[in-house]
Design a protein that fits this description.
9 helices, Rossmann fold, Cytidine Deaminase, domain 2, 2 domains, alpha/beta
């Protein structure tokens, strides 16, 4: 009898590692293609039955690898450093043809097309947070501290702005205060965006006003790729920036190490809210 298998295209961070562990605990064989410069093989030792490092753009090699190991279900998980596009992009012939065929370089378009190419080869992409549903909290206040009226207004404004930039495929996070945008997420990622906003906030003469960090999913988010994720590093970034309000979209955002995150925000008197 053929055992159940799950393929993972792994970027950096805990998300792909946690998925691999949960799958292995359920008796699923895990086959991992780790993206060079992002994933680390040592994180999957004792969990993945097969691990192979690949560069971005090696589509033909990736398809062959997963087919060779009998994978028909595949997911993408973990952050891919945007600088990898410049330092680790080395397309094979299949990947070069694919890149040449693209009509847009927007992330959601590229990944949708990747999914189509794998599907042609009998490999279906699944929810990128498979086995991590317990890290996706529903709407509500997660911290002991609830938002003040001013903070709630700031959060509501930030939600509208974040949804707008997400729809434009710019980023998923914004930092706002006094109905003004302080920073939006670009290639640097969420944590760096928060720290950059903190530097601007520290220079402001209006520091008594509320500043909120808001992270959302894209409109019509495809749950097979690029879900919004926060974790302990995000809370550390807030602390470094001197900010104390973080809101995210409920049911669509992964909060890795959820219990530890809640414990951290309570210790630091941060308001954590699922919208």
């Amino acid at each position: 009898m053929t055992s159940e298998k799950l393929g993972i295209i792994a970027g950096e961070g805990k998300m792909p590692v946690y998925i691999a562990r949960q799958a292995a605990q359920k008796g699923v064989e895990v086959v991992v293609a780790g993206l060079k410069g992002n994933a680390r093989e040592e994180d999957f030792r004792g969990v993945a039955c097969v691990y192979k490092e690949m560069r971005l753009g090696q589509m033909g090699k990736g398809i062959h690898f997963f087919k060779e190991h009998g994978v028909t279900r595949l997911l993408m998980a973990g952050r891919v450093q945007h600088t990898s596009v410049f330092s680790n992009l080395m397309p094979d012939l299949c990947g070069a043809k694919f890149l040449a065929s693209l009509k847009s370089m927007q992330t959601k378009y590229i990944l949708s097309r990747v999914i189509e190419e794998f599907k042609k080869e009998g490999i279906e992409f699944v929810h990128s947070a498979m086995y991590l549903e317990h890290f996706m909290p529903p709407a509500g206040v997660l911290s002991r501290r609830h938002p003040t009226e001013e903070e709630q207004r700031t959060i509501d404004y930030g939600f509208k702005i974040a949804k707008s930039i997400a729809a434009l495929d710019i980023g998923l996070t914004c930092v706002v205060g006094q109905n003004a945008v302080i920073a939006v997420e670009g290639m640097e990622g969420t944590d760096a965006c928060i720290r950059r906003a903190g530097e601007l906030y520290k220079k402001s003469a209006e520091k008594q006003h509320c500043v909120a960090v808001v992270k959302v999913a894209r409109p019509n988010q495809d749950d097979r790729f690029d879900l919004p994720v926060i974790g302990k590093g995000t809370i550390q970034a807030l602390q470094d920036a001197g900010l104390n309000v973080l809101a995210f979209e409920a049911g669509k955002t992964l909060v890795l190490d959820l219990e530890e995150v809640v414990s951290l925000v309570d210790k630091q008197n941060i308001c954590l809210l699922a919208l």
